Every structure is written in structure tokens, then in C-alpha cells.
Amino acid sequence: MTEERDCYMEKTFLPNRASFDAHPERFLLQYDDLPKSSRKYWKQRYSLFSKFDEGVYMNKELWYSVTPEMVAIFIAKFIQACDPSVNTVLDVFSGGGGNTIQMARYFNKVIGVDMNEEHIYCTEKNSEIYGVMDKIELHLAMWPSGINVELLSKFQNEVDFVFASPPWGGPGYTANDSFDLTQLEPIPLADLLRSFFQISPNVCLFLPRNSNLDQLSQVTRDLCGETARCRVLYVHSEGYLKGIYAIWGEKFMPTNQYDTSMSSLDYSVENSEYSSSTVLDHRNSHEAMNTVESIVGSEY
Ligand SMILES: C[S@@+](CC[C@H](N)C(=O)[O-])C[C@H]1O[C@@H](n2cnc3c(N)ncnc32)[C@H](O)[C@@H]1O
């Protein structure tokens, strides 16, 4: 094992680690431990983590905010198929590791950042269950204010792709017809994207399904130029539209390697996931092409 690999395995400093270690029961919640409003998520536990029964760690917030496993596998495969040269992915807002873990199965290294130490701890535990801890480096930090010059420079040197699933403001994010991306937490969409483009031109955001696409178009033009494009993938799972992936970076636009190599990818139709897509370009055209882009299946 190389020195570099050893270093990924070093545990992140967490001020309350000893207390977390002493009370695993607070992360191994059962149906009766969940707040009544979150009990509806219990039946989705294997969709969140197929290895749930092996002792997956989640706190109350993660029960409703983790990216479901198939949705996370989908984007990891998509990124790799579009650009096989991607080596290191930065997962900002890494939560309980839903995306971090699946990215680590497809890429050599994943750097996760989250401001919540319970979430970092859960990601560590969960990545051990999935056997990918040696590919993951975690940072307890607030984005963007907690990213110092040294860390930013490290990310700029190492990272090929920035992925982020920012908070959607809790389960009530669909209360309005359109999700206002200027109100995105922790900072408005334009500022968030600007912080990511400092690191890489290749970016993906996991956003609410009712996100305002006009705002996405406008921000794309403002930050990347009049002819820039943003690709939007509508991700369905178990019959529901779970959210959209908004993607920037030329290698990830249609007519790239992914679109031509799809048939050669090893997808299973069981537990099918699929996504239709639209490209937001200078004509501000939102008509979904409605092409089925992928089918992915359970791998465990
Ligand atoms: C939707 S969850 C991410 C879910 C994650 N992709 C997963 O699958 O587990 C959003 C995460 O963002 C974190 N967060 C919110 N504001 C943050 C900030 N300013 N800096 C860093 N992390 C933040 C929260 O602690 C939470 O874990």
C-alpha cells in the first residue's frame, strides 16, 4: 500500500468522536426511534443503502436527505462513461455518504466535505461497510467560508469533477410550484457554482425536481458565456421523479462518449432507473428531449 493511500485512511478529526463511538445506538435508529414525520422513510431503507442491515449509520436528518443508492450509482456511472479520465471527485455536502460511497466505487479518489460532524462520522462508518474507505478523504468544513487557501489549492490541484447535493430545505421543498434557486442553501446558485468553477469546469448539482430552469439557464449564461450549455437529467427511481442532475462541462453534453457507448455499458433492467434530459443552451430551450438515457440496476 502506498503512502498516499495510507493518508486517505487517516480518520478526520471530529471533536465528538469519542462520544459517537460510545453511543452507536444514536446512529442505528430503528422504526420506533424515528420522529413520526420520518417514519415513512423506513420502508425506503434498502433504497437508501442496500447494505442497510449490515449496520448503516444515519442520524435523523440523514434519513430524509441521503441520496438513494441507485440514484447515486446512476450519476457515478454517467460521469465515468462521459469522461473515463476522471480520477478524483470532490463531493461537497457529502452528508451520510450516499454519493461519496458510490463515487468511490467508480473513481480512484473521492474527497468529501460536510460541516456536520455526525454526517462525516456516518460516512466513515458507511464507507467501511461498502469497502471503499481507503479511497475516501473527508473534511469537516463549512462551504465555502471554511475552505482556506491551502485547502482550495489542494482541491484545484487534485480534483477533476465537483459533485454537490446541497440541502433542499427539508421535506417541504415542493411546497411551491417552482424551487427558487436564488434561495438555495447555503448560498444562492450563482455563488455556489462560482465557488465550484474555481476548482473545475466539470460540475454536477443534484437539485429539486421543481427547480426553476430559467434561473439555471440564466446562471449558465452569466457564468460561462452566451453559448454555454447546462445538461439537465431527470432522475426517476421506483416510479418517482427523485430530482434533477444539472451538469456543466463540455465532455458531459450530448453526443459525447456516453451517448455512443451506452449500449456497451453493463446495465440491468431490474429495478430500473432512467432519466430523460434537456439541454439548456443559448436559445434557452427547455423542451425535454424525452430520450431514455440510461437504465441501471442493482449491483449488490
Ligand atoms: C442533502 S444533504 C447531502 C446528502 C448526501 N449527498 C448523501 O447522499 O448523504 C446536504 C448536506 O449538506 C451539509 N451542509 C449544509 N450546509 C453546508 C455548508 N455550508 N458547508 C458544508 N456542508 C453543508 C449538511 O450537513 C448535509 O449533510
Topology:
Layout: H1 3-9, H2 17-22, H3 45-48, H4 60-65, H5 69-82, E1 88-92, H6 98-106, E2 109-114, H7 117-129, E3 136-140, H8 149-158, E4 161-164, H9 189-197, E5 203-207, H10 213-224, E6 230-237, E7 240-248, H11 257-261, E8 273-280
Parallel strand pairs: 1-2, 1-4, 2-3, 4-5
Antiparallel strand pairs: 5-7, 6-7, 6-8
Bound molecules: S-adenosylmethionine (SAM).
Tally of helical segments? 11
Assign the structural class, choosing from mainly alpha, mainly beta, alpha/beta, alpha+beta, or little secondary structure: alpha/beta
Q: Which ions and ligands are bound to the chains?
A: S-adenosylmethionine
The CATH architecture of the domain at 67-117 and 135-280 can be given as 3-Layer(aba) Sandwich
Radius of gyration based on Cα positions: 18 Å
Distance between the termini: 26 Å
- Which fold name fills CATH's third level, the topology of the domain at 67-117 and 135-280? Rossmann fold
Poorly predicted segments: 261-274, 284-300
Helical proportion, percent range: 25-40%
Largest sheet: 8 strands, mixed
Proportion in β-strands: 15-25%
- Series of secondary-structure elements, N-terminal to C-terminal: HHHHHEHEHEHEHEHEEHE
CATH class of the domain at 67-117 and 135-280: Alpha Beta
> So, the CATH homologous superfamily of the domain at 67-117 and 135-280?
Vaccinia Virus protein VP39
Strand order of the largest sheet: 3-2-1-4-5-7-6-8
Morphology call: globular
Number of strands: 8
Average pLDDT number = 85
Protein name: Trimethylguanosine synthase
InterPro entries: RNA_cap_Gua-N2-MeTrfase, SAM-dependent_MTases_sf
Pfam family, one: Methyltransf_15
GO molecular function, one term: RNA cap trimethylguanosine synthase activity
